[in-house]
Design a protein that fits this description.
Elements (H helix, E strand, L loop, with lengths): L4 H22 L5 E2 L11 E2 L12 E6 L6 H15 L2 E6 L11 E3 L2 H9 L9
Parallel strand pairs: 3-4
Antiparallel strand pairs: 1-2, 4-5
Length: 127
C-alpha cells in the first residue's frame, strides 16, 4: 500500500498517542497528546515538566560529523558509553550546511529522554 496524506496523518497521530501514553505512564500522568492548533501549534506533547533530579543527571554525548546518517549505530554506541558512565546518552550530529554549533542535531532514545527528565532510567531499558 502506498503512503498518501491521509495514511501519513493517521500514522503520525498513532505514533503521537503511543509516545504520549508511554511518557504519561513512565513520567507523569499529566502528559498527553496536544490538539493541533494551526499556526499557534505548541508541539505534539503537553504536560512534560523537568524534575529537580535533572540537575544531578549525567549525560554522555557521542558526537558525529559525517555525511552518512547511522542513527541506530550511533545510539548503540551512545548506549554503551552511557552504561560505562552511569549516565543518559545522546548523539550530537552535524547539520551539514550550518556551522552554528547551537543549531546542530541531537538524537536520543525515548528512554534516554525519560532519564534526562526524571533522573532515572525506565525499567527494562538497558540499551
Amino acid at each position: 500500500m502506498t503512503r498518501n496524506r491521509r495514511s501519513a496523518r493517521t500514522a503520525g497521530a498513532r505514533f503521537e498517542r503511543q509516545i504520549a501514553d508511554y511518557l504519561a505512564a513512565t513520567i507523569d500522568d499529566r502528559i498527553d497528546r496536544r490538539v493541533k492548533t494551526g499556526a499557534k501549534d505548541r508541539g505534539d506533547i503537553g504536560g512534560l515538566r523537568l524534575s529537580p533530579a535533572l540537575r544531578s543527571q549525567r549525560v554522555v554525548c557521542e558526537l558525529k560529523d559525517t555525511t552518512r546518517t547511522d542513527l541506530p549505530g550511533w545510539t548503540r554506541e551512545a548506549a554503551t558509553e552511557r552504561l560505562n558512565d552511569d549516565a543518559a546518552g545522546v548523539v550530537i550530529h552535524k547539520r551539514h550546511g550550518n556551522a552554528n554549533p547551537a543549531e546542530q542535531w541531537v538524537s536520543m532514545t525515548v528512554a534516554d529522554l525519560v532519564a534526562l527528565i526524571t533522573g532515572q532510567r525506565p525499567e527494562g531499558t538497558d540499551e
